[in-house]
Amino acid sequence: MGLRDSLLLATLAALLSGAPAGAQELTGTLKKVKDSGAITIGHRDSSVPFSYLDGSQKPVGYATEICLKIADAVKANLKLDKLEVKLVPVTSATRIPLIANGTIDLECGSTTNNADRQKQAGFTNTHFLTATRYVAKKEKKLDKIEDLKGRTVVSTSGTTNIRQINEANTARSMGLTILPAKDHAEAFLMVETGRADAFVMDDVLLASLVAGSKTPDAYTISSEALSKPEPYGIMLRKDDAPFKAVADAATAALYKSPEGKALYEKWFTQPIPPRGINLKLPMSEAMQKAFANPSDSPDPAAY
């Protein structure tokens, strides 16, 4: 290895360590935050328990708290006395454009980290693993994917899930009528009111919608999944290595610490605001491994 290679590796190591800014000229999001004294977090309205509005319309949730930890790390990295945290609502359809055009710096919700999205955005370490299933009323006696043949189903616009059910519809000649909804709440309402037979979405989000419904016992989630386990990650701008290094270091430290497990239990195994529902989802073995070995890989096989 030559001197030039050694210097390049040393520079890269410093960059990836999330070392305090100042050792090199600020660029990208770190410069934006330093200059403005503010960081902007995109939140969701109904992605329970990841990012949603509580009884006083305040954004709360598991992913929201992780983003606030990242904001703390950015403040420390930039050695700022104060850092304003701005919260901006986003939807499944607007989250990537708003990250790309600089309106928000972090997107905190239930966004699947996959290879296609990594062409448009960056992701921090995985904070949850899910799979695509569907929810339906028990009276319809639906359980497997094939049971949906000829039915009307709904999924949220701009999600991985609506792409997957469209692909399954074509590949399996299922004859589905697939309706897009603007958000998860509208999609579940369509099942609740009979406008759709099933709502295709990440299983954990379906569990939260059922737990928060007027009649939780009236619904069932399919036993068969439409996908392999999929990683959720906090989204940030693509090709912004210095900012991503800070976010990666902050999330890795959180997940490996007892605080990470406590944060998970707070939102998945205990009553949560505003109605005190309990998702009763203890940390899976796969999630324990993901926390022990933080990764931003979009490949389900990595988990």
Automatic annotation (TrEMBL):
<comment type="similarity">
    <text>Belongs to the bacterial solute-binding protein 3 family.</text>
</comment>
<feature type="signal peptide">
    <location>
        <begin position="1"/>
        <end position="23"/>
    </location>
</feature>
<feature type="domain" description="Solute-binding protein family 3/N-terminal">
    <location>
        <begin position="38"/>
        <end position="271"/>
    </location>
</feature>
<dbReference type="InterPro" id="IPR051455">
    <property type="entry name" value="Bact_solute-bind_prot3"/>
</dbReference>
<protein>
    <submittedName>
        <fullName>Amino acid ABC transporter substrate-binding protein</fullName>
    </submittedName>
</protein>
<dbReference type="GO" id="GO:0005576">
    <property type="term" value="C:extracellular region"/>
</dbReference>
<keyword id="KW-0813">Transport</keyword>
<dbReference type="InterPro" id="IPR001638">
    <property type="entry name" value="Solute-binding_3/MltF_N"/>
</dbReference>
<dbReference type="GO" id="GO:0030288">
    <property type="term" value="C:outer membrane-bounded periplasmic space"/>
</dbReference>
<keyword id="KW-0574">Periplasm</keyword>
<dbReference type="Pfam" id="PF00497">
    <property type="entry name" value="SBP_bac_3"/>
</dbReference>
<dbReference type="GO" id="GO:0006865">
    <property type="term" value="P:amino acid transport"/>
</dbReference>
<keyword id="KW-0732">Signal</keyword>
<keyword id="KW-0029">Amino-acid transport</keyword>
